[in-house]
Request: fold
Amino acid sequence: MKIGFIGLGNMGIPMAKRIQDAGYDLIVYDTSATQMAIMQNYGAVPAESVSMLSKHIKCIILMLPNSQTVKNVIEGEQGLLATLQIGSTIIDMSTSNPLITKKLGAKIERHGSTLIDAPVSGGVGKAETGNLTIMAGGDERAYNQIVPVLKAMGSYIEHVGPLGSGHSIKVLNNMLSATHLLATIEILAAGLKMDINPDKILKVINKSTGRNLSSEYKIPNFILNRRFDSNFSMDLMCKDISIALDMINALKCPAFLPGIVTQLWNLANEKGNRLYDHTEIVRLYEEWLEVELKT
Ligand code: NAD
Reply:
């Protein structure tokens, strides 16, 4: 079976490699020649353009930065819809805006094809080992047909509801993740001001009720060692939580923390050059408090 893959970034490369390793014929496209060369060296066939890809392939995965790019790739002048064959399935695995996903889905359906949203959680490490969590939304029959492809990339795969449900859960999850990273940094900084070593605080927290993924994994592995190499950018985190906040506001939900959390992340992003790793959010607090959180 032939699979098309568009968007060969930090996540796209390891995910595409998993598909190739699973024995599918892989045709790839990215605007970056460097990223294309990586997959070409790995044995994938390069497509000349997005529309050339959809001319020949009926199952196409997107792993792109945001909804605007997804929209351009699907319905732009030289986009997928220009040449897409009837009965095709497009799988948007990017973290996209669910409201835009629904609109694009309706357009693709009028074309006689299907859009499935199937964003992922787990980051580059889990993408490399094929252990991503995948939350899929959309037509269940189309979903069942693509499960074997998803299994090449993920170890926990769940159909979560109609089109847009996967993207909704994904941005809500990232809001929670962005919140516990900030909350944990704040208490570590307070502890440091009391002359308590951050390693000691984490050691105790991780055996206590305050533990979370940031305390157990992100802070020791990317912040305290000053490596900041999670491969998930500040820009992408800000994009994800802004989508979640817009969604929460549009639904008029009583949620007070997301607004504050989003403001803090945007503030940090404005200070950086927009290429910072998301774990560099710690620098915001370090500047305010004149301390450095390190081992
Ligand atoms: P990235 O910026 O590293 O990669 C995006 C890729 O898309 C780049 O290679 C870029 O050249 C390519 N691209 C941009 N515009 C294009 C176009 N018009 N046509 C073809 N290719 C184009 O991003 P990433 O970290 O791989 O993340 C991709 C998506 O996955 C994002 O939506 C992100 O929010 C989500 N995500 C990322 C992580 C992570 O840990 N990095 C984890 C889960 C989900």
In short: The first strand starts at residue 2 and ends at 6. The pocket of nicotinamide-adenine-dinucleotide is lined by residues 6-12, 29-32, 35, 63-65, 69, 72-73, 94-95, 120, 123-124, 231-232, 236, 240 (CB under 6 Å). Strands lie at 2-6, 25-29, 45-46, 59-62, 89-92, 114-117, 120-121, 132-137, 154-161. Residues 162 and 290 are 48 Å apart (CA to CA).
